[in-house]
Amino acid sequence: MNDAAAARPLVVKCTAGAESPERCAQAFTVAATAVAAGAQVSMWLTGDAVWFAVPGRAEQFELPHSAPLADLRDAVVAGGSLTVCTQCAARRELTPDDLLADVRIAGSASFVDEVLRDGAQALVY
Q1: Which of 62, 65, 96, 101 is nearest to 81 (CA)?
Q2: Which of 63, 59, 81, 80 is nearest to 71 (CA)?
Q3: What ranges do the domains of the chain cover?
Q4: For the segment 56-107, what is each residue's pLDDT rounded down to a tens digit?
Q5: CB 47 within 8 A of CB 20
Q6: 52 CB-near residues (< 8 Å, 6+ apart)
Q7: What number does CATH give the domain 3-124?
Q8: How many other β-carbons are positioned within 10 Å of the β-carbon of residue 109?
């Protein structure tokens, strides 16, 4: 990745959980690959994808020919940021104490702020 591309923020929004495993795995794979390439990555989990920010949940996800979801998630947390949608967390009665360390809960204003930054690229799965 060239320096200009690495400096551009990438926002990946995952709207699918275990009910749509390929779409879910694709979002995590792209986010983790971008982190490995040196991009500035912010990943957002909405809908049932928020469960993968809860300890032990991603470890139960299985999809043939896909990297383990927990490994992909952990790569994003280590090299980027992982955010759970405020409303989605509330609907599932999840609080910050229920989530992995370094995962935040934030709302649409924060998401919009991220995707409207200069040079940002947003992908939604």
Answers
A1: 101
A2: 59
A3: 3-124
A4: 999 999 999 999 999 999 999 999 999 999 999 999 999 999 999 999 999 9
A5: no
A6: 14, 17, 24, 28, 45, 58, 61, 69, 73
A7: 3.40.1260.10
A8: 9
